[in-house]
User: Fold this.
Amino acid sequence: MPDTHKDKRFICDYYTPGMIIIRIIRASVPCGNIIKINIPELKGDAGIIQFGDIPKNRCLKVFSKEMPILSDGNIRYEGEPILLLYGSNEQQIEETEEQISIEYDTDYTIKSMEIYTEDQIDREINYQRGKPDKNFEKSFRIIEEEYTTDAQNHYDLEPQGAATVISKKKLEITCATQWPFNVRDNVSACIGIPAKDVTVNVPAMGKTHSGKLWYAGLLACYSAIVTWKTKKPSICIIPKTDSILYTPGRAASKFKFKTGLDEDGKILSRSIDITIDSGAFPMLSEEMINRICFSAAGVYSTPALRITARSLITNRPPSGAFNGMGFHQSFFATESHSNSLAAAAGLFPSEWRLKNVAKKQINLPMGWESRKPMQLEILLDTVLEMSDYTRKYAAYKLAAVKQNVFSGKKRGIGISVCCQGNGFMGKVEENEKYTVSARLDNDDKLSIMTSAVPENFQTAMLWKEIAGKILEIVPADIKIETTDTSLVPDSGPSLFSRNITIIIQLIEKCCNAIKKSRFRLPLPIEVKRSFRLPRTNGWNPETFSGNPFPVVSWGAAVVETETDPINLTTLVRGVWFAADCGKILNRELAEAEIESEIYRSITSSTIKPPVKKYTEKGIPLTPAQPAMNISITTKFIDSKELKSGGLGELPDSLVPSALLEAISTAMNTKLTSLPSSSEHLFRQLNHKEKEKIEN
Amino acid sequence: MRIDFSLNGKKVSTDTPPEKRLIDVLREDFGLLSAKNACYSGECGSCTVLLEGQTIPACQIPVFTIRAKHLITMEGFRGTEKYLDIINAFSEAKCTPCPFCFNGKVFAVDRLIDNRRSPEISEIMALLSDHACGCASVSSFIQGVKYAFQNRELRGELLR
Assistant:
């Protein structure tokens, strides 16, 4: 393992003295128009690029959405790139940067999610199943609640950037991206040269959490424009603060629930109103809003359902995919609401869930024409038993009600259940014809060609192991070509666990095809395979019917906490996690992934990081990993699914609601927003105390 | 300004502005890329190097302060017995830090197992918190540090 690190080069390692350095000059206001840009006299080889200087296409394209590569004079968010300043002398560039000033007309109302107008709505979905109003009338009790989640930024350790050189009259881009072909297509469109004259190489990358999906394309365009103009190698690396503040983070959301229960606590009807902040440019809003709607009602049998959802354009930086693209927000809200429903019905949260979870996919709230039985009850039983949930919940609930608030540390416990949709929803996979190819050479060595970017070297190892098993070749004789668009086919963006669900399927298909003809055809044998969705019951995004994902994973978790009533800090005592994610390819790798994602999820659920803005080469105070050794127990149940599903998004969908429920139980309150820090808990308890005194 | 110092056991010299950050000198003048230039504020730990045996953030050190001192980067540390203690332990514990945080974590572990007889879990967690990358599983990292300590102890490096 370790010495493979020796030759790994990240994007920051591509800088060499003499290269043209690019600085992005950003808007300092959230909305308005540029009146004047004051640029000092440029020294040496320094230069400026503005919107009008972009050679050809001036917009970045992601699926059907576009955003300007540089501001066209209209400012839509604070931090929007206005111009590029470049030159080879770093000190001169820094001095010039300080002298550039921009005058704005800011006589506009800032568009936000809190109060919005009709023209802010980018996409709206109105979905109805059954007769919600009629069922509300029949309901024994109706519970209405509101939940919110904040926007969440990426805190990647490594810098984001892109470098370009001209080699043999072609543009060679090096860029940390999860989607190399999108970078290639955008660069070729913006410079106005054929796609075959642009190659994209992917350097080493850290964990991405879908943060390098399309933003890398923007940086690649900057670097390509400057190199095209100067004919010199250039590099554009953004400072850490910019990376945190302006790369596409997780969208903020607001959920309003109205749920009708029968006398036994079973759901009769549900109405959900959802608002998502897509930021200034809703690049992925269609997929995101579909995924949010899909998961908003959870995994419970719901006879009647109404969902109204809208994604809004606001004066915030564009939001992005960020691990699950909506599932996280939805499951936090719907699982937290489930706890209130259980309390209203006089049931333990576990009892209520066991009573309401769907037994077959067709009974799930939206779409799903498949009649496959699901194992949610088994998952719930597994975590309940592992954690001793029922006894602990009863004890902690009683202690929270009976004991004085300051009588010692307060323990709490929470539970949640969710699913993870692997791959894109619906027809993206089929329309785009994403492909993997493999070639068995004369020396019996195998090359796998794919543009999918492995998250880590274990994923690449997994691909080799699977291919090696089919063709009976040792992993050392298998080479994976992933880093150069001129050598590999377009395998689509690497997100939604596609590397596990889709890419592995395609590698298996390629290897099986080679195996069939191995001793009948002369070597080398090369085959290509593209992903196809099953023709029957395909997902229909207009009617929300059919089967939405190639593979679905399921999970349940229990979180136990201990909160100090004096300083309101919370220690997580244990997390019990059960998953059904199809065929497990590598148990150790799967457990390690779950563990690191649980830690990350706990951090992001309880810490609201303060952000310093515009510090010179400074880093905002990052949320440090909690310095606690959490006992994590993971169990994979025997799956009925033969394919492999992803699991990296499950902790982020399960932990926040279970964690906040545990803290709420301990402190006898109800936390309804994410993240909920100690300060938030303090304000909540203060507010509750005031209300008590007033009454 | 001409600055002479020892880099990875060899006497070297560089002519550079005295206030230039050590990390930039290492990367630009000597082509040593294992220490990473991520945050430029000493917070992330990825630029860690050993100066006179102590870990320091190279992004916070002006180069004139290292005159006549001994500096070790990961390029020089790699292949030493101390390095092998940690690497073999990580391998045994199936701990796989990514190449970006690798440099900082390895130097931090080296200092931890050099300074203590047996690292406490709280110390390991504090170390992880200072190098928050989230790439490796926490339990495997804890195990890796424990194995590293055992490896070093077996080599008789630690005082009894």
About this structure: Confidence is low (pLDDT under 50) at residues 611-625 of chain A. Residues 18-108+160-237 of chain A form a domain with the Aldehyde Oxidoreductase; domain 4 fold (CATH 3.30.365.10).
